[in-house]
């Protein structure tokens, strides 16, 4: 469904991605893991057109999306839950969700907001509350809800569990599984390697801008190098 081939990207003279290739098959959960600064967020931003690749190609459902504008990439069916949630803190929960539908122009936006409220009843209760007053977990739910408002075929999640209490982390992972089961393909960047590999079908390991390993999530989880570097040796 999504294919990155030999993608090189960065910021000015800083090359963050040194020719990476990655595939996300339709219907799967693919997890991208790696240490801080490895280039995981840059990969997500490059897919979304927020960072322009200097080499390589990105195709989505057979369409070349390399260098396309972000709103057209969203229209094509990819949406991002960014690192740090990026909720609009001075806008209400409801308005944040409306923002997620900015590329749409149909009559079903309100229905989709109701669907988000059904998935996350706490957001319904707080629909008039300002985004900035929500807890971290609620903000993450809002960030996911907002991304779903674009009706993505492929959902990119950048460290959704970051900074959340263990119970909330489990809820978020459950939600990701549900979204996947409902037919949305998922690319997940996570520091929480253990949980990410539990729900993923396939995984890639990125180190200083290069893919060093990929395989079925189960095989990656039991790889000695991964166990040592990301799973505390267990
Ligand atoms: P983290 O988990 O810390 O977000 P990451 O794997 O997502 O790490 P990136 O944020 O993609 O890593 O960063 C990859 C490299 O690009 C790092 O060396 C980082 O310092 C650099 N970098 C990231 N964003 C910028 C930017 N806006 N300007 C310049 N350099 C950047």
From TrEMBL:
Domain spans labelled ABC transporter: 2-233
Keyword ATP-binding in record: yes
One Pfam family named in its UniProt record: BCA_ABC_TP_C
GO molecular function terms attached to this record: ATP binding
Keywords for this protein: Amino-acid transport, ATP-binding, Nucleotide-binding, Transport
Family statement drawn from the similarity comment of this UniProt entry: Belongs to the ABC transporter superfamily.
Name of the protein: ABC transporter ATP-binding protein
Organism: Veillonella absiana
Lineage: Bacteria, Bacillati, Bacillota, Negativicutes, Veillonellales
